[in-house]
Amino acid sequence: MARICAAPGCERVAFAGPRCDLCELERQDKRRAFDKRRAADPHRKIYKTARWLRESRAFLAEHPRCADCAAAGIVEAARAVDHVIAVRVRPDLAFDASNWRPLCWSCHSRKTAREDAGFGRRKGGGGSEFRPPP
Ligand SMILES: [Zn+2]
Ligand SMILES: [Zn+2]
To answer: Which of 19, 46, 90, 131 is the most exposed place for a label (fewest CB within 10 A)?
Structure first.
């Protein structure tokens, strides 16, 4: 079934799926570049360490509620430990619990998406993501 490509500004015909072949290729290229960049971030490897798994689990046991949801008056179970100051900015604070916040998945993925978007644009990763706690 042919229809017009779903990509904004593109008027080619899409035969398989929502996009035309060219836009589909472009989308895959972008995704691959994005994944590569993420995988290349050396600080991500701390999340794979036994120490991180152990300490983040203990932290969540102590702080079972999502901090962002709690600020909005919502009670939501925390599922992830978030770094207030990103690890790539302050790797020395990676295991410092005073730099940690408990977040639920939706708050955490929202924040991660924001940081990753910024990571692409910002050269060298400045500390502009940092907001002091209220
Ligand atoms: Zn297209
Ligand atoms: Zn939340």
So the answer is: 131
